[in-house]
C-alpha cells in the first residue's frame, strides 16, 4: 500500500524547512471552516496540535481515554524540555542541538527531521512562556537551564520537577479556549478502536464510549494520531497504566507501516522493582544526575553487607566507592546518555555489586552536591566559619529548591530520606523511539493519517536524549503539523462533510464489534493481567536491556503461543455495553501481544547494536554498542500482513550529508 518516500525537501539542511513552508499550498480562513480534523490523544503533541488547528479555523474533534486531557501521560514528565536558545552562553546553537540528537540516537534518525526539530525548539519556549508556563528563572530574571545526558551544554528549560505537568496545563488551557469557542469538540472517556479508510484515505475512526459502551462513528478529512508510545508492552514501565498502542496499532493493521519497534529506551534513574505486587515503576528524573553521583561499593563484601542490611551506604568512605560512570566516561561522567548509563548499571549489578535486597540497584548520592552548594551559600550569606551542620542545612535548601518534589516522591515510596541516605535506582522501560513510520510531513503510509509525538518514529533514532520528548511533542503540535496538514487539506476544500453512513464505516464498525464479541467469548481461565504480566516477563528477559538471537527466537515463539492462549482463555467479566475496564485492558493487551512479536522479530533482523538496541553478539571489547553502518543504516518499516510472523520489511535508507558517522564516544 505505502511507498517509503520520505518527501524530504531539497536544498541545504538549514534552509529545507523555510523553503518548504514557502512552497506548500495553503487553505484560506473561510475554507478552513469547512474542514474537519480528528486528533486522537490529548497529551502535549495532541493537545498542542488540536489547539493550533482550532486557532487556525479548522473544526477539531479530540479523543482521549482519560476523563480529562489534563491526565495525559505527558503530565508525568519531570526534568525539562530542550531548546537551543543559548541562554547560558556556553556555545549552544541549532546545529549543536541537531548534532547531539543525531549522535545520541546513535546515527539512526533522519537528518532533515531532527534539524527542523532543533530549528523550531526556541519557538516552543517563547510560546509556553506566553501561555504562562512557570519555567525556573535565574537571578537576573532570564529563564534558567540545566544539563541533561549526552550533551556538553545547558539547554534544558524546566519547572522544578514538574515540567511536563506545567507544559500540559499550558496546552490544555489553549485547548479549553477553543472548546469554549466551539472549535473543538472534546470526547473524553472515548477510545479509538479502528481507523476508517475511504478511497484509500483516512476519513474517520470508530470509537467506544468507555462509560456507556456505545460504539460511535466519527468522520473527518484527516486523522492525527498522538497517542503516545508502547512501553507498557513490558507490563512494568514508567508509563501510566493506561498507556497503550491501540490507536497506532489499529492504524498499522489498516496499512500504516510500523517503524523500528525494537528501539526502546531504558531509563537509568528509576526506583527499583520491589516485588511481584507492582503494576508500574516510578521515574526519578534524569535532571537528578546533574547533581547526584552514581556509585556502587568497590568491594564485593561491602555490597553484600549493604544488601543484607549489615552496613549503611553512608558508612563507606569516598575511597571505598566506585563512581563507575565518572571512571568509565570522564568527559560526560554521570551525564552520559540513558542507554549508556543503563547498561553500565546492569553490568555492575550483574557483576555482583548491586545494593538492594535483590541486587538490582545502584546508589544516586547527593552528598557532594549538598556540601558544594552549602559552602557556596555560606560565602554568599557571609558566614566566615560555618559549621558542618550549617553547610548541610544551606546545601539541602538549594537541592530542595531544584528537586524537592522528586525527593518527596522518593521518600513517600521508599520510606527513606534521600537528603541523608543515597537514593537507590535501577533502569526501567521508559520511552519508545519506534512508532508509526512518517514522512517529512508527519504523514503515515496512509494518506490523511498523521502521527505526532511518541506515536511516530521520526526524531530520536535508536536512543532518545533526555528532555527531547517534550520538545518533539510540542514541536510537532504547535509548529510542524499545522503547516504540513494544511498542504494536504488544501485538496479537500470542495470535498464537503464526510458521511458516516457509508459501506466503509459499516465494514469497520462490524470488524470492531466482532473483535469485542470474540474478546468477551473467551473460556475464562485467566485474567487480562495474567497475560499482560506473562508478556512483560518475556519482553524484559529476552527483549530488554540486552538481546541475543537465541532469546529473540524463543520470545517470538513464546509470544505467539501466549497470544493464542489469550484469545482462547482470557476471562473478561461484565458486559460490553457499559463501563468495563477489563474489556478496555483486554483490547490493549491483545494489541501488545501482536506488537511484542513484531518487536522481537525486528530486533532479530537487526544484527548490530545501536543505542537502546543492544545485541550481545555485537559489542566492542569494552562492552559498548557496535554499529554496522554498512548493512543497517536504515529505518525498518514493517507492513502488516496478518500475523506478525508474516509482516514484510521495507527499508528507508538513512543519508547523512551534514554529519560524519563515527563510533559514539562519551569518554
TrEMBL record:
It catalyses: a quinone + succinate = fumarate + a quinol. Residues 532-666 form the Fumarate reductase/succinate dehydrogenase flavoprotein-like C-terminal domain. Its cofactor is FAD. The keyword Transmembrane helix does not apply. InterPro entries: FAD-dep_OxRdtase_2_FAD-bd (IPR003953), FAD/NAD-bd_sf (IPR036188), Fum_R/Succ_DH_flav-like_C_sf (IPR037099), Fum_Rdtase/Succ_DH_flav-like_C (IPR015939), SdhA/FrdA/AprA (IPR030664), Succ_DH/Fum_Rdt_flav_su (IPR011280), Succ_DH/fumarate_Rdtase_cat_sf (IPR027477). The keyword ATP-binding does not apply. It is a peripheral membrane protein. It holds the Pfam family Succ_DH_flav_C. NCBIfam families: PRK07573.1 (NF005749), sdhA_Bsu (TIGR01811). This is succinate dehydrogenase. It comes from Cerina litoralis.
Amino acid at each position: 500500500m505505502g511507498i517509503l518516500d520520505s518527501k524530504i525537501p531539497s536544498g541545504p539542511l538549514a534552509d529545507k524547512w523555510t523553503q518548504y513552508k514557502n512552497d506548500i499550498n495553503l487553505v484560506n480562513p473561510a475554507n478552513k471552516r469547512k474542514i474537519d480534523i480528528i486528533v486522537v490523544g490529548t497529551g502535549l503533541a495532541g493537545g498542542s496540535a488540536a489547539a493550533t488547528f482550532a486557532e487556525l479555523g479548522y473544526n477539531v474533534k479530540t479523543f482521549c481515554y482519560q476523563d480529562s486531557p489534563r491526565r495525559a501521560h505527558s503530565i508525568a514528565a519531570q526534568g525539562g524540555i530542550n531548546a537551543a536558545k543559548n541562554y547560558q552562553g556556553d556555545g549552544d546553537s541549532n546545529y549543536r542541538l541537531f548534532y547531539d540528537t543525531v549522535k545520541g540516537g546513535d546515527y539512526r534518525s533522519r537528518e532533515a527531521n531532527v534539524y527542523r526539530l532543533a530549528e523550531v525548539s526556541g519557538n516552543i519556549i517563547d510560546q509556553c512562556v506566553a501561555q504562562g508556563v512557570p519555567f525556573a528563572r535565574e537571578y537576573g530574571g532570564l529563564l534558567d537551564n540545566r544539563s541533561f545526558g549526552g550533551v556538553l551544554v545547558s539547554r534544558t528549560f524546566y519547572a522544578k520537577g514538574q515540567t511536563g505537568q506545567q507544559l500540559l496545563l499550558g496546552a490544555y488551557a489553549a485547548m479549553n479556549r477553543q472548546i469554549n469557542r466551539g472549535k473543538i469538540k472534546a470526547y473524553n472517556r472515548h477510545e479509538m478502536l479502528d481507523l476508517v479508510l475511504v478511497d484509500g484515505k483516512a476519513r474517520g475512526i470508530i470509537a467506544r464510549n468507555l462509560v456507556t459502551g456505545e460504539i460511535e462513528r466519527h468522520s473527518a478529512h484527516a486523522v492525527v494520531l498522538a497517542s503516545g508510545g508502547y512501553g507498557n508492552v513490558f507490563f512494568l514501565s514508567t508509563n501510566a497504566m493506561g498507556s497503550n498502542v491501540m490507536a497506532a496499532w489499529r492504524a498499522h493493521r489498516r496499512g500504516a507501516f510500523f517503524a523500528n519497534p525494537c528501539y526502546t529506551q531504558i531509563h537509568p534513574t528509576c526506583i527499583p522493582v520491589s516485588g511481584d505486587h507492582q503494576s508500574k515503576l516510578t521515574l526519578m528524573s534524569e535532571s537528578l544526575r546533574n547533581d547526584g553521583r552514581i556509585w556502587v561499593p568497590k568491594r564485593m563484601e561491602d555490597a553484600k553487607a549493604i544488601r543484607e542490611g549489615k552496613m549503611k551506604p553512608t558508612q563507606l568512605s569516598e575511597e571505598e566507592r566506585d563512581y563507575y560512570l565518572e571512571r568509565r566516561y570522564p568527559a560526560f561522567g554521570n551525564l552520559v546518555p540513558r542507554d549508556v548509563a543503563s547498561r553500565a548499571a546492569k553490568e555492575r549489578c550483574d557483576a555482583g555489586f548491586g545494593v538492594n535486597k535483590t541486587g538490582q540497584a545502584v546508589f544516586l548520592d547527593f552528598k557532594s552536591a549538598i556540601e558544594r552548594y552549602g559552602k557556596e551559600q555560606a560565602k554568599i550569606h557571609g558566614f566566615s566559619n560555618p559549621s558542618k551542620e550549617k553547610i548541610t542545612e544551606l546545601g539541602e535548601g538549594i537541592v530542595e529548591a531544584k528537586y524537592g518534589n522528586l525527593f518527596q516522591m522518593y521518600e513517600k515510596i521508599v520510606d527513606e530520606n534521600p537528603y541523608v541516605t543515597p537514593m537507590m535506582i535501577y533502569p526501567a522501560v521508559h520511552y519508545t523511539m519506534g512508532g508509526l513510520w512518517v514522512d517529512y510531513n508527519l504523514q503515515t503510509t496512509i494518506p490523511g493519517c498523521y502521527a505526532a509525538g511518541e506515536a511516530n518514529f521520526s526524531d530520536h533514532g535508536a536512543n532518545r536524549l533526555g528532555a527531547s520528548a517534550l520538545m518533539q511533542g510540542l514541536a510537532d503540535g504547535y509548529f510542524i503539523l499545522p503547516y504540513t496538514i494544511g498542504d494536504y487539506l488544501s485538496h479537500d476544500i470542495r470535498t464537503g462533510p464526510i458521511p458516516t453512513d457509508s459501506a466503509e464505516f459499516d465494514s469497520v464498525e462490524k470488524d470492531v464489534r466482532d473483535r469485542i464479541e470474540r474478546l468477551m467469548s473467551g473460556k475464562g481461565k485467566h485474567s487480562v493481567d495474567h497475560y499482560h504480566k506473562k508478556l512483560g516477563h518475556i519482553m524484559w528477559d529476552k527483549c530488554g536491556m540486552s538481546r541475543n538471537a537465541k532469546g529473540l527466537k524463543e520470545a517470538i515463539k513464546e509470544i505467539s503461543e501466549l497470544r493464542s492462549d489469550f484469545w482462547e482463555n482470557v476471562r473478561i467479566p461484565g458486559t460490553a455495553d457499559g463501563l468495563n475496564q477489563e474489556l478496555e485492558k483486554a483490547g490493549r493487551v491483545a494489541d501488545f501481544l501482536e506488537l511484542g512479536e513484531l518487536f522481537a522479530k525486528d530486533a532479530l533482523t537487526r544484527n548490530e547494536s545501536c543505542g537502546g538496541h543492544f545485541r550481545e553478539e555485537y559489542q566492542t571489547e569494552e562492552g559498548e554498542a557496535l554499529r554496522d553502518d554498512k548493512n543497517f543504516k536504515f529505518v525498518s518499516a514493517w507492513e502488516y500482513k496478518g500475523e506478525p510472523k508474516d509482516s514484510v520489511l521495507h527499508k528507508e535508507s538513512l543519508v547523512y550529508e551534514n554529519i560524519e558517522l563515527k563510533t559514539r564516544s562519551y569518554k
